[in-house]
Design brief:
The complex is a heterodimer of chains A (524) and B (229).
Chain A (H helix, E strand, L loop, with lengths): L1 H8 L1 H5 L2 H5 L6 H5 L7 H21 L8 H11 L1 H4 L37 H10 L14 H13 L22 H13 L3 H4 L38 H10 L18 H10 L11 E6 L11 H5 L3 E4 L1 E2 L14 E8 L3 E9 L15 E6 L21 E7 L3 E7 L5 E3 L6 E6 L3 E9 L15 E9 L11 E2 L3 E5 L6 H27 L1
Parallel strand pairs in A: 1-4, 1-14
Antiparallel strand pairs in A: 2-4, 3-13, 4-5, 5-11, 6-7, 6-12, 7-8, 8-9, 10-11, 12-13, 12-14
Helix pairs in contact in A: 6-9, 8-9, 10-13, 12-13
Chain B lengths: L1 H25 L3 E10 L4 E6 L4 H4 L2 E7 L11 E4 L10 E6 L2 E3 L2 E4 L2 E7 L5 E6 L7 E4 L5 E6 L3 E6 L7 E6 L3 E4 L5 E8 L1 E9 L3 E9 L4 E8 L3
Parallel strand pairs in B: 1-18, 5-8, 7-13
Antiparallel strand pairs in B: 1-15, 2-3, 4-14, 4-16, 5-6, 8-11, 9-10, 9-12, 12-13, 16-17
The chains are: A alpha+beta (524), B mainly beta (229).
């Protein structure tokens, strides 16, 4: 109970619970205000479990919607919601201008996530969003609030748009469910192409469709289509039924239309949902350690080479840089998949990340896309590392860096605005851009000379951090997404010795035994 | 030769008179309002390059915010006589053709509207309405016609999110109405004789009202001049 109280009392718990911690695409109000400390990992895990059990309890205890008290809801609203959604519920709270997507304006009664065939969501729909939050946005889970408060909030929200809630919502009847199968996924892909989902969501679903740059919501705010390969960012949840419901009902206030009458057969909604669910995992599994595989022979520079497909990627989450001005509250790159290998000569990194546009930049509104791997200048056994945000005046960092139009290079940095290329660098590599995704190979000799460049050694835990810039979204300089320090480890070198030494030892042992036996026989 | 010409003109006159007579009989005691809508400002037509679906949409397109024709006539304005009832109800119709809404302004009475897609590519019909439920429905290439309801009087903006330049309007008006042509002229026929309020509406220039007295069998002229906001 003490733990429970600790969680409930600390606002970041609910905010930075399991969901928030994994997601970096949008900061919560707490991060923005910067007023509250981040929870430690232990607290986080604890809060996660408590939040989960609370959510479970909420589900069991509230099979049916409860009638809330709008007046009581107003009090809760003013304390917890008005910061983003505004005193009057018009979506214009003090934090609103920093948030993408913008907080919802409740005065029109238009809600993105609903399970109804009518315009208004059901009470349960509203309750669920308050309870679970909206993945990929700044809307956190409010499961920390007592059930009653959340039902009261539902009642209050409805009073902000009485017209919209005048009629009782009609439940949306989905077509009969079709289980996922190879045939269903194939049909879903056909339908995906026939109804031209790619116009916004891109051919491979990575939110890079040709209509993407022009999309606006009904309030005129730019709005991004969902990246269909990252289901964990789906606003209304990643499950097949949730996806089918969004397809059938549309997402109100956004460009996403309803498709219930716009597929060839009603069950196509399920085929589509099955196809979309096949595009990516429901949840990402983030890595904690990057392993650099030891190989013999050549490591290809071509990012699309079979060699790289065989290596297991380590998914690393990125956050917006919100320490140094100008800050980046809405980072574009939220995940980089790292593969790495080394041979007797080079260490080679293969990075994959989604970026909706290939940008060289005009230098005014758009800039060159870029990414860098950051290492300490010298790799030692010491636990002291340079400041993770690209070093500082006292201690710099080493960067292995790629920039659109310039290619791969080496640099040192003493802070995000003080990057100096290293003359005569020995780095190389190749990048390809394909349907909303970059794949990049960066290579460098294992050994290096000079104080600014680390030498990579097997088995040593090597600190590494990543920074990425989506220049097409206006990211440059301190406006980036980044990680704090991670570790990578070059695995033990594979050598022929493992094939030679054990047999030699076995033979020697056998010989020794024979000698002993013979000696014994001779004595007798 | 002259005789023939005279005979011809006499015949023309007779035919003309007969037609006029026929028309006035059809009007059943109604008159015609001929509205002349002028705009004393510059046209506002946005030109832009198309970067997708160019085989259907062309490589260039325009957004017609204010179209001014000859003699300062304002096109795409809706002239209506809201209190003139009793007209026949026809379904409204709008087509998505060449990645444009055709016509730019649909005039209809409250009821059903037929939405066509003759482009063979995806459009989504997205309405911005408050009196009527807003619509955002995908219309893929195989869905050639959809029917939607607009049952309350309202001027409804229509967009397509796939092609952000597409802009159209549906004027849902209870009485008789017509949109002005490129010369800024709209004719409303069969208006019952008597005093009426005539309203003009334009998507960016707003509304104006005038009172007219319609006489049976006659054309009543009314002119408006809209000013930039």
């Amino acid at each position: 109970m003490a733990h429970l109280r600790r969680c409930l009392l600390a606002p970041p718990c609910g905010v930075a619970g399991p969901r928030r911690s994994r997601r970096s695409s949008a900061p919560s109000i707490w991060t923005i205000l910067g007023a509250l400390p981040r929870p430690g990992l232990a607290q986080l895990i604890f809060c996660a479990s408590v939040a989960a059990s609370l959510a479970l309890a909420a589900d069991v205890g509230n099979a049916f919607a409860q009638a809330g008290d709008a007046n009581a809801g107003k009090a809760v609203y003013e304390k917890k919601c008005a910061g983003c959604h505004g005193q009057n519920g018009d979506g214009k709270g003090p934090a609103a201008e920093l948030l993408v997507p913008a907080p919802r304006d409740f005065t029109r009664g238009l809600y993105k996530i609903r399970t109804t065939a009518s315009k208004a969501p059901s009470d349960r729909d509203l309750f669920k969003i308050i309870t679970d939050g909206m993945p990929g946005t700044s809307m956190p889970s409010w499961a920390v609030l007592p059930d009653k408060d959340r039902w009261n909030l539902v009642a209050y929200l409805k009073t902000l748009a009485p017209e919209a809630f005048k009629e009782a919502p009609k439940k949306l009847e989905l077509p009969k469910e079709v289980a996922s199968s190879e045939a269903s996924i194939k049909r879903g892909k056909e339908m995906f192409e026939a109804i031209e989902c790619h116009k916004c969501h891109g051919t491979d679903g990575r939110a890079d469709g040709p209509s993407r740059p022009e999309l606006k919501d009904e309030w005129g705010h730019p709005i991004a289509p969902a990246n269909l390969t990252k289901r964990w960012t789906f606003r209304g949840g990643p499950g097949r039924t949730e996806i089918a419901t969004r397809l059938a009902a549309g997402v109100l206030g956004t460009p996403m239309p309803t498709f219930i009458d716009s597929v060839e057969k009603p069950e196509d909604i399920w085929h589509l949902a099955n196809y979309l669910a096949s595009l990516g995992p429901e949840r990402p599994s983030y890595a904690t350690l990057i392993t650099v595989t030891a190989v013999r022979g050549d490591i290809p520079d071509d990012p699309n080479a079979e060699f790289w497909k065989k290596l297991t990627p380590s998914a690393i989450p990125l956050m917006g840089q919100i320490i140094q001005d100008p800050r980046n509250f809405n980072p574009s790159v939220d995940l980089v998949a790292v593969r790495a290998a080394y041979n007797e000569r080079d260490v080679v990194f293969h990075l994959t990340w989604d970026d909706p546009s290939e940008s060289k930049g005009d230098g005014k509104q758009t800039f060159a896309d870029a990414i860098s791997l950051q290492f300490p200048p010298q790799i030692t056994a010491s636990i002291e590392r340079p400041y993770f945000l690209m070093g500082d005046a006292n201690e710099g960092v080493y960067l292995l860096r790629w920039e659109q139009g310039k290619g791969v290079g080496e640099a040192t940095a003493n802070g995000p605005t003080k990057i100096a290329p290293i003359a005569g660098g020995e780095a190389g590599g190749k990048a390809v851009y394909d349907h909303g995704q970059y794949r990049l190979v960066m290579r460098r000799p294992l050994a290096a000379t000079g104080e600014a460049r680390p030498t990579f050694r097997p088995v040593v835990f090597t600190p590494v951090a990543i920074q990425a810039w989506d220049g097409g979204a206006g990211e440059t300089g301190t406006r980036m997404s980044l990680t704090s320090w991670y570790y990578l480890r070059l695995e033990e070198p594979q050598s022929n010795r493992r094939f030679v030494i054990p047999p030699v030892v076995a033979i020697l042992t056998l010989a020794a035994m024979v000698l002993v036996v013979r000696a014994a026989n001779r004595v007798r | 030769m002259r005789k023939v010409a005279t005979a011809g003109s006499v015949a023309a006159l007779v035919i003309g008179a007969a037609m006029w007579w026929a028309a006035s009989v059809d009007a059943q005691g109604g008159g015609t309002i001929e509205a002349d809508v002028k705009y004393n400002g510059a046209p506002k037509v946005e030109k832009l390059k198309v970067n997708k679906d160019t085989e259907k949409c062309g490589t260039e397109t325009t957004i017609e915010h204010v179209v001014v024709g000859s003699n300062k006539g304002l096109a795409n304005a809706v002239v209506s006589v809201p209190d003139a009832k009793g007209a026949t109800k026809a379904k409204g119709a709008i087509d998505q053709h060449g990645c444009r809404f055709v016509p730019h302004v649909v005039v209809m009475q409250p009821g059903e509207i037929e939405i066509k897609n003759s482009d063979d590519i995806l459009h989504n019909i997205h309405t911005y309405s408050t009196a009527n439920p807003s619509i955002n429905k995908a219309q893929p290439k195989f869905k050639k016609v959809m029917t939607e309801k607009l049952e309350k009087p309202e001027f409804v903006k229509v967009t397509c999110d796939v092609h952000s330049w597409m802009l159209g309007w549906v004027a849902v008006v209870p009485g008789l109405a017509a949109a002005t042509d490129n010369n800024g002229v709209a004719k409303i026929e069969n208006v019952p004789a008597g005093k009426h309020k005539v309203e003009v509406w334009h998507e960016t220039l707003g509304k104006q009202e005038k009172d007219v007295d319609v006489k049976a069998g006659q054309v009543t002229k009314v002119s408006f001049e809209l000013k930039g906001k």
